[in-house]
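Before a colleague's protein record goes any further, I have to sign it off. Thanks in advance; the entry in question is below:
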Amino acid sequence: MESYLVGEDMWDVVGGDKTKPPESNEQNAEAIKKWRSLNGKAEFALKRSNSRGLFEYIIKGKSAKEIWETLNQLYNKKDVNRLQMLKNELANATQGELSISQFFVKIKNLCSEISLLNPDEPISEARLKRHIVRGLKLDTLLLLHLFKDGHSNHLWKSWRTNNGIEFTSNDFFLSVDNLE
């Protein structure tokens, strides 16, 4: 919608530097008329582009800017709910019947989507690794524990997944130690 408003030269009255009409006096009569026209067109575009369910929230807006801010709050509220849902899913994610590779992809996709919705607090690679290790099946973790105790330790110092995530033996062993 923002692209449409910019393309039609209406963005200034919605989110630009002309969100309020010019001061009312005889010298600004033409500028006020132009602002009202642009604001009316922007209001119309915003109202017509939304569903009937949202119309009741935006009909009370006195300007295109107010309507835009109301829509922004409504849509961002949904993003907050989605973000919380994804965080809950990540916190409770387990390998279950998934292969290790499928589980890695699942966790990486959840972390990517969370980071997109909340760019101020992106999920670090270390946190991503912790979620993967926490969600692995016990038999996988026990196998990794054998590596820690020196059995075939020389075979595995680091491991890179198909998704480009590199694990060192310490990533697993720190989590495995917490099981004891």
Summary: Residues 78 and 143 are 42 Å apart (CA to CA). Residues 151-163, 172-180 have pLDDT under 50 and may be disordered. The first helix runs from residue 2 to 7.
